[in-house]
Structure formats: structure tokens, C-alpha cells
Design a protein that fits this description.
2 copies of one chain form a homodimer.
Chain A lengths: L21 E12 L2 E21 L3 E6 L13 H11 L6 E7 L10 H16 L6 H16 L7 H6 L2 E6 L4 E5 L5 E7 L5 H6 L4 E3 H19 L3 H7 L6 H4 L6 H10 L4 E4 L6 E5 L2 H18 L3 E7 L6 E2 L2
Parallel strand pairs in A: 3-4
Antiparallel strand pairs in A: 1-2, 1-12, 2-4, 2-5, 5-6, 7-10, 7-11, 9-10
Main location (chains A, B): cytoplasm
Catalytic activity (chains A, B): L-homoserine + ATP = O-phospho-L-homoserine + ADP + H(+)
GO molecular function, one term (chains A, B): homoserine kinase activity
Chain lengths: ~325, ~325
């Protein structure tokens, strides 16, 4: 908030209803949840980015970075900017927004950094405007931000960031987002500090898959969804199997197979590549197991000699949330 | 029961605990439920086959047909026989079974005639033997019967026949069957009287599918499972879409596209090919719509000039059930 006052005098703008600026926490997210490639994601309670949005009398979006990531401030090539520009298109009464971006979720980590950048500001802007848009609209705007980041309009990180919890994207055109009830789950994430570009990770996938593999995959996603809603941890664990994407993409992540096997040996229900990597996530039934899983991850990357960061957290049920 | 007395004097056999014979009703089933190819099925309250099983002092399985289908009585090539022979392998204390088969579900109709023949007798035999086997064991035995019928050991008709309701086969080896809670659903089936052999229907499928189609399919199956468990009829309807199997197989069924579109226009949630065809099933929220759907089906096939049979029924929640 400290840099805010310099740029905008919010009380001058009647649209904000006296609210000068809205600050939100926008969560990291895990997408491509094992057998749920391109359709299933969930939000994390940690890490989160912070965005502060205010109305501006200048036309367009004005980006102010308050972190060390040196992201572009030209709104057309900035994820938050592109999302807010898409929103502005449908707000003829609004001239512009100013965003102060304080990112924590590392770009390129595979835990939805760009989705956090896209989702947070549009939710904040919507609060400023009296919640005139539905969550589904906000996902639509935020996808313009994702497109800047990865070249593709996908919603599997954005939907959980905005809705919270576990979300299914049944269809992207037309957009059909379904919240999936889930039992309490502990999430351990390790981010080995290597670069896997989303576009590269997408390019190595084969355009065709064997029908028999596809059948296995849809058996598993059906089992996973049933396990989540019916709170059947065993079934969740059995269903966390990906016979299509993981065998191809995991070769880009040093230590992947060892981490996965040892984490399961330590009691994790299962897990896999987060997004398009390089982060790996594991789900556990309780905090103690999740902590043991973190130790396993550290051991593997300490031995390999690769820098890493871990996050020990739970599923975020609220999505982007206003800081009050 | 009338032909029974001639073949066996049940009270002589101590294993049956005084029960001379057990009669069961074994239901027709719908498998390959739209986007759930090879993994999702459900049981119908109508039509059903009737099987009466008794212990025999002769080694092996003795088949008696009490219907007009002229099915083989050699147990190795008879679906009920092959299933019971598999069961006998694990019953060292049992010499043999006699089965009286009174089939109603037409072989080759696509509503699980062979599964009814496989499931009914093993459930009846298990009751005779004091329920020594689990449902999962019974599915395993019955799959030997399916293999006789279609050359492939599949469980997507057998599982709902034995468990009742809607069942998911998450995995076939190892066998993992999950009962999926579902809201009340009305089912309308039309069986146009043409022959589609399961083996042929399987052969025309491509071994490879586009990844983007597979993603659509697993989005839909995830949506369908969520819709069923969360009792969301709209979501069920939206998810009843098959972009992989139906476009290929429906060309074998005259009138398919017209039936499907007109049934949806008449209010059906959706539906598709039952099993590998030629039957077509439609799901509706209420009995009135299901009846209107039946009229639409009749109209189409009357106009085409193809003989047909319809069934107006609901989902059978119990599976194979003893006649008492």
C-alpha cells in the first residue's frame, strides 16, 4: 500500500463508492492435476500474490511493480494488464485502473503465477465496481492474461484462483466451470529451480494418444472426481495416475520419478507435475504426512544438488480474497 | 421352476443348506454411457432375465434353456456356463451346477444380454453357497462369460448388473469398481432390429485418438460423474457428449442422429448408443418426458420402416435380485 498514494487520489472517483483501492491476495494454484490434464485444478493457501487496484482517471491500465520480478509494465504484455484491459472493454463507464503488483508466486514455477496475476486484479477491480460481474465473467477476462503468459487461453489455473477449492473446466468454449467438493487435503509442493517454459512443455506432447490410454485416463479422472466428492481418500489415491502426459513431461524434471515414488512411500496419496512443471505437488491426508513428504523432497534435491523451494499448505477454499 | 424337479433333488445336497434352488432376475444394462466408453454403466429395471440355479451331483455345469433363443448348452461356449465354470474353479467342495435359463433380454441388442446371462447365475450360485464370494469376485467370474460372448473380458455391463445402480470401472486389471450415487433417472431404450456385432463395433474404432478430443472426453466424464453424485441434472445433460466413439459407431445405426436430436428436443437430458449398439438409450428427469421420448423413437423408426422394440424404465438400484 505504501506506493499507492503517489499515483491516485481515489476519493475523487464516484464509481468506487468511496472505496479508494481494493487489495486482494491471489493464490497460487495447481493445474493439470495428474489425470485431469487441462480440466482440473485447485487453489493453494500459500504462496499468494498481493494486488491493489484503484480506479484511474487516465484511460487504460497503469501497472506499478512493487516486487523484484521486473515484469513488463506495458499492460498489453503484462498478465494483469491484459486481463484488466479485457474487463475495461465491458465497462464503458470506467476510464482505467491502476494496479500495484506485489508478486510472491515465482513466474515459471508451475503453480499458476500468471493465473494469480490475472485473477487477483480482475477480482479486485470487480469489488471496486460493486461486483457487477459474475465469477464466470471474471474467468473470461483473466484468460486474456493467461494468453499473454502462455499463448493459450486456458482456465485451469484461473478457475480455482477465482472460485477457490477444486474446479473442473468441463468445457472451455463455451466456458463451463464446476466446483468439486473435496475433503481436507494437505499439499506439499517442491519447485526445483530449473526453467520449463509452458510453451515447450506443451510442444513435446504428442497430438495423438492411444485409445486404450485415453480410456485409462478417463477411468482415473472419473475415479478422482468420485473420490473427491465422496471423500474417499483411498479412491483419490488410486486414481492419481496419469498414463498420457506425465510419462512425456516428467523427463523435463530431474528427480521426478524418485520424488514421486519416495513421497508415496512416505504416505502421500499421490501427486504429479504441477501445471506444466517444474514444480511437483503431492497430496496427503494429514499435516504430519505432508511434512514428511516435504522432507523427502528436500532430501532428493539436496542429494541431486539442485536449488529448490518447498511449500507446505492446504487447499484454499475461497480463491482470491480481499485484504481487510 | 417347472422343469427343475426333473433334473435335481436339491434336499440331498448339504451345501445348499436345504435351499433347493435359487431363482434370480438379472437385469439388462447400459454400458459405454456416452463419454464413459469402457468405464461407465448402469442397470435397468426392465427387461430382466430369469435364472434358476441348483447344485448338481454331476461334475460341471448343466445348461437348460427355457426360452426360444436356442443358445448353446455346452457350458464352455455358453455365457452362463463359462461364468459358472470359472466360479467352480474356486469351489473345490462343489461338483457342479444346473442352470435353467429363461432369457428375455435379446442377444445382440446392446443392452447387456450376455452380462445378464453371466451375472445372474453366479449371483444365484453364490446365494446357494451361503454368499461365500464378494461382489467383486462375482464380477471376476462373470467376466469369463463376457469373454465367450465378445472375445474380451470387459466388466462395464457386468458390474452394474451385479452391483446395481451406476458403476464406474476405474480399472479392469486390477479390477476396481466404484458405485456412483445418482439421482432418479428415467431411461428410454429403442432397439432397432438390426445386427451390430460387438466385435465389429470394436473393430471400426481407431486405435489412436486426438489428444484434444481425449481432453474433451475426460472433461465430460468428469462432469458426468460430478453431475450424477451432486444430483445436478443440467450438468448431467451438458456432459452427455461423446466426441470419440459415437461419431464412428453411430454410422452403423440407421436413424441414430435423428433419434438423438429429436429426443433431446422432446426434453431428454441426453443419451447415446447403448453398449456397442444397435440400441439407443435416452435419460430423462421424469416419467412424462421419458414417455414422450419413446414416442419420438417410435415415430422415427416407423417412418424409416425398421422393426424395433422400446423399453421405458428406470435405473435398477439392486442389480441381480433373488426371486422370493
Amino acid at each position: 500500500m505504501r506506493t499507492f498514494i503517489k499515483y491516485y487520489e481515489p476519493s475523487l472517483n464516484p464509481l468506487s463508492g468511496g472505496k479508494g483501492a481494493v487489495s486482494v491476495l491471489s493464490p497460487a494454484t495447481v493445474a493439470n492435476v495428474v489425470c485431469g490434464f487441462d480440466i482440473l485444478g485447485f487453489a493453494l493457501n500459500n504462496p499468494t500474490d498481493e494486488f491493489t487496484v484503484s480506479l484511474s482517471d487516465e484511460v487504460g491500465v497503469h501497472i506499478i511493480n512493487d516486487d523484484d520480478f521486473n515484469l513488463p509494465t506495458n499492460p498489453e504484455i503484462n498478465v494483469s494488464g491484459a486481463a484488466l484491459l479485457a474487463m475495461l472493454e465491458e465497462c464503458p463507464d470506467v476510464k482505467g485502473f491502476t494496479v500495484i503488483s506485489k508478486k510472491v508466486v515465482k513466474p515459471g514455477s508451475g503453480i499458476g503465477s500468471s493465473a494469480a496475476s490475472a485473477a487477483g486484479p480482475v477480482v479486485a477491480a470487480n469489488i471496486l465496481l460493486g461486483n457487477r460481474f459474475s465469477k464466470s465473467d471474471l474467468v473470461r477476462f483473466a484468460m486474456f492474461g493467461e494468453k499473454v503468459a502462455s499463448g493459450v487461453k486456458h482456465a485451469d489455473n484461473i478457475a480455482p484462483a477465482i472460485y477457490g477449492g477444486v474446479t473442473l473446466i468441463r468445457s472451455i468454449f463455451p466456458l463451463d466451470i464446476i466446483s468439486i467438493d473435496a475433503p481436507p487435503l494437505h499439499v506439499t509442493v517442491v519447485h526445483p529451480q530449473i526453467e520449463v517454459r509452458t510453451a515447450d512443455a506443451r510442444q513435446i506432447l504428442k497430438q495423438h494418444v492411444l485409445l486404450k490410454d485415453a480410456i485409462k485416463q478417463w477411468g482415473n479422472i472419473a475415479g478422482l472426481v468420485a473420490g473427491l466428492i465422496q471423500q474417499d481418500y483411498d479412491l483419490i489415491g488410486r486414481s492419481l495416475e496419469d498414463v498420457i502426459i506425465e510419462p512425456v513431461r516428467s523427463i523435463l524434471i530431474p528427480g521426478f520419478n524418485e520424488v514421486k515414488q519416495k513421497c508415496k512411500d512416505a504416505g502421500a496419496l499421490g501427486g504429479g507435475i504441477s501445471g506444466s512443471g517444474p514444480s511437483i505437488f503431492m497430496l496427503s491426508k494429514d499435516a504430519e504426512t505432508a511434512k514428511a513428504v516435504e522432507e523427502v523432497m528436500k532430501d532428493v534435491y539436496n542429494r541431486i544438488g539442485l536449488d529448490y523451494q518447498t511449500h507446505l499448505t492446504t487447499i484454499n477454499q475461497e480463491g482470491v480474497k480481499q485484504v481487510v
